[in-house]
From TrEMBL, chain A:
HTH myb-type domain span: 230-274
Segments of this protein annotated with the region Disordered: 1-46, 152-175, 368-394
Polar residues: compositionally biased ranges: 385-394
Myb-like domain span: 225-275
Ranges of residues in domain SANT: 228-279
Organism annotation: Stylosanthes scabra
Subcellular localization: Nucleus
Protein name: SWI/SNF complex subunit SWI3B
Stored InterPro entries: Homeodomain-like_sf (IPR009057), Myb_dom (IPR017930), SANT/Myb (IPR001005), SANT_dom (IPR017884), SMARCC_C (IPR032451), SWIRM (IPR007526), WH-like_DNA-bd_sf (IPR036388)
Biased composition annotated in UniProt, kind: Pro residues: 9-18, 26-38
Keywords: DNA-binding, Nucleus, Transcription, Transcription regulation
TrEMBL record, chain B:
Subcellular localization(s) per the UniProt record: Nucleus
Keywords (A to Z) from UniProt: Nucleus, Transcription, Transcription regulation
Domain of life: Eukaryota
PANTHER family documented for this protein: SNF5 (PTHR10019)
Family of this protein: Belongs to the SNF5 family.
Protein name, UniProt field: Bushy growth protein
Primary site of residence: nucleus
Length: 483, 240
């Protein structure tokens, strides 16, 4: 149940000192509390005990921290106050208190028990404990499903718990226990209320004309009590409600007046129950819807969409398709919005027609392509002007084929380029090998020359040795040196 | 090493608990008409005074004590807080102080004895974290032991902080105070500041000597019911 939207409407209740006695004695008037499945972490009790949590605390989860908690126990989330009071510490306190209670849910735990087991300063522990107790997350022992046999209808209690109040239920409102001002009997099935003079008459008195002088029968409006308990809001009423909300915002009195026939609480309750309630709250600008519709009327080529869009803006469920509507492309956003407005079937046929005309436009720009497929595409285009669904799909198929061919060509080109590059590579390598070959040959020649020179030297040495033995030593020495 | 002198003359710091959270340990022991209320917890001094009365009322209601306790408890807490606040304005010297902290407490069935060194200069220290890890490591199941350990540590830190304020005051009165040498403050509790020079100087090693191992090892004992009763009786006798 979305408790956030009306919470912004009503000022947050004072968090100071919810009297612990009242929290214990008056369990909040809600429908039978939903049994929560036992928490997955270690439950010391053997059989899985069912933990009861009041319906207004349904948001609670052991793993995360809810906005509600940040509001009620701000000291842990206000980073300015203390570096050590952070959400982790809060979570530790909260989870240990809750686990301690759930260890044995049939008995109430006292603050002192808990305080002894938690490390930290007692002031903050006490505040967390009070918060949990006030919200029924601990020490919640409903003795029976409904303590008092109230004639509250469901919506009253829901709207109360929805308004985030931990205080005891407010006094009786006017729309319960209608007592006829004429015969002082309890109105059961239907009664007639006159707002002008603040009268309530049961059906019998109304028929009998048992009302004051000066009040005419037309001043009364029929109020069905039995119907009130059902949430049978007609389309018109819902539409009125939404209009009123966009106009008056949080002024529920005026909203209920605008809707007519529903009290403030009914309006609030119904509004909460609408699936997109809180989305809509952010959608302040009611006029934007019609503006965008008008714009698109000029832009769109498709004639079909216009009439539908025109009628669709008056549709009561102005849903916003959030995934696409947030797209940065404004046209896309508008298209998404309108398609959501118009409903799925209309959107489908509109889209097909749009595709058909788009393909037609596409074909006119591709005149240089003289493929046989093009002519058939033309035919397809011509045929699809009427908005026939099969032709339009054919047109799109041709479109796809053309694209395919383009892709193929691209791929071929790419491959040929790759081959070229590789060939070039190989050529370069060959070149290099040739060069190195040349160099090696040159070196070979040089070596040969040197060999020859050495041979010559050796020869000359031998000759000189034979001629003069004395100088032979010297030359030997020289020869040795030159060696 | 001439560090002690400079350490002593370090700029004085405003008094506060040398832990990351400035919480006051409060120990209460009140007896009215034969009913005894003993408790120990940590309090946040920045909480408004209205909290004190609320807490007292809550505790009395939870423990089903006679209502006369409310005023007594509130007064006791408030006097503790007043003491704390009186120290708060003054300076304390934050010298090189690594002190041994001793734990010797009994919580329900668990007996804890331990000793370890704690750095007083570390203003980000967290006794609660230490207690939590201690319980986890020693596999202590009783959830009340953790807070008791944190409280004991905090109490000792508080005492030492008070003493440093007192000594700072004295030293200021006695003109420049002690100078030179090593400053080893001795507290009444017997906690002597460890001589850093000797321990961590170049000639010694950081590894503890074997004969000191027993002293610094934590001991956690689970007592049986009779032992608990016996100990409680002994404590009663000591108290009287």
């Amino acid at each position: 149940m979305a408790t956030n939207s009306p919470a912004t409407a009503t000022p947050p209740p004072k968090p100071a000192d919810p009297p612990s006695s009242s929290a214990e004695t008056t369990p909040p008037p809600s429908k039978p509390p939903q049994p929560e499945p036992p928490s997955s972490d270690s439950k010391p009790s053997i059989e899985p005990a069912v933990v009861l949590v009041p319906s207004h605390s349904r948001w609670f989860s052991l793993d995360s921290i809810h906005q509600c908690e940040v509001r009620h126990v701000p000291e842990f989330f206000d980073s300015a106050s203390s570096s050590s009071k952070n959400p982790r510490v809060y979570k530790y306190y909260r989870n240990s208190i809750v686990k301690y209670f759930r260890y044995n849910p049939s008995r109430k735990i006292t603050f002192t028990d808990v305080r002894k087991t938690l490390v930290g300063d007692v002031g903050s522990i006490r505040r967390v404990f009070d918060f949990l107790e006030a919200w029924g997350l601990i020490n919640y022992l409903p003795s029976s499903s409904m303590n008092k046999p109230l004639k509250w209808d469901d919506k009253d209690s829901k709207s109360e718990s929805g308004s985030n109040s931990a205080e005891p239920p407010p006094p009786v409102r006017e729309n319960t226990k209608r007592i006829c001002s004429g015969c002082k009997a309890v109105c059961t099935i239907a009664c007639f209320a006159c707002d002008k003079y603040d009268l309530t008459l049961c059906a019998r008195c109304y028929v009998r004309g048992n009302y004051r002088v000066g009040v005419s029968s037309s001043d009364f409006r029929r109020v069905e009590i039995s119907e009130e308990t059902k949430t049978d809001w007609s389309e018109k009423e819902t539409l009125n409600l939404l209009e009123a909300i966009t106009h008056y915002g949080d002024d529920w009195k005026r909203v209920s007046q605008h809707v007519g026939g529903r009290t403030e609480k009914d309006c609030v309750a119904h509004f909460i129950k609408l699936p997109f309630g809180d989305q809509f709250l952010r959608y302040q600008d009611g006029g934007a819807a019609s503006d965008s519709a008008n714009q698109l009327k000029h832009n769109a080529v498709v004639p079909e969409c216009d009439s539908e869009a025109g009628g669709a803006t008056e549709h009561s469920k102005r849903m916003r398709l959030t995934p696409l509507a947030d797209a940065s492309n404004p046209i896309m956003a508008q298209a998404a919005f309108l398609s959501a407005l118009a409903g799925s079937e209309v959107a489908y046929s509109a889209a097909q027609a749009a595709v058909a005309t788009l393909s037609e436009a596409y074909k006119t720009t591709k005149n240089h392509r003289s493929f046989p497929k093009n002519t058939s595409l033309q035919e397809a285009g011509v045929a699809s002007n009427g908005g026939n669904s099969s032709d339009s799909s054919q047109a799109s198929r041709f479109h796809a084929n053309i694209l395919l061919e383009k892709e193929e060509l691209d791929v071929e080109k790419a491959i040929s380029e790759i081959i070229e590059v590789q060939m070039k590579d190989i050529q370069d390598k060959l070149h290099r090998f040739e060069n190195s070959d040349l160099m090696i040959e040159k070196e070979c020649q040089q070596l040969e020359q040197m060999k020859n020179m050495l041979f010559l030297d050796q020869l000359s040495l031998l000759f000189q040795k034979q001629s003069t033995p004395k100088s032979g030593e010297r030359t030997e020495g020289n020869g040795v040196k030159t060696n | 090493m001439k560090t002690p002198a400079s350490a002593f003359y370090r700029n004085p710091v405003k008094f506060r608990m040398p832990t990351s959270e400035n919480l006051v340990p409060i120990r209460l022991d009140i007896e009215i008409d034969g009913q005894r209320y003993k408790d120990a917890f940590t309090w946040n001094p920045s909480d408004p005074d209205s909290e004190v009365v609320l807490f007292a009322k809550r505790t009395v209601k939870d423990l089903k004590l006679p209502p006369a306790f409310v005023t007594q408890i509130a007064q006791s807490i408030q006097s503790h807080l007043a003491d704390f606040r009186s120290y708060e304005g003054q300076d304390m010297y934050a010298g090189d102080k690594i002190i041994p902290i001793k734990l010797d407490l009994r919580v329900n069935h668990t007996l804890v004895k331990d000793q370890f060194l704690w750095d007083l200069n570390n203003f980000e220290s967290d006794p609660e974290e230490f207690a939590r890890i201690f319980c986890k490591d020693m596999a202590i199941e009783d959830p009340e032991v953790g807070p008791a350990i944190a409280f004991a540590i905090r109490e000792q830190l508080y005492e030492i902080a008070i003493q440093s304020v007192v000594s700072a005051r004295e030293s200021r009165l006695s003109k420049k105070g002690r100078r030179g040498g090593e400053y080893t403050p001795v507290s009444k509790g017997g906690a002597v500041a460890v001589d850093l020079v000797k321990l961590f100087g170049p000639k010694s090693s950081v590894v503890r000597k074997r004969k000191e191992w027993d002293v610094y090892e934590p001991i956690v004992d689970l007592l049986s019911n009779e032992e608990v009763d016996a100990l409680e009786a002994k404590e009663e006798r000591n108290f009287r």
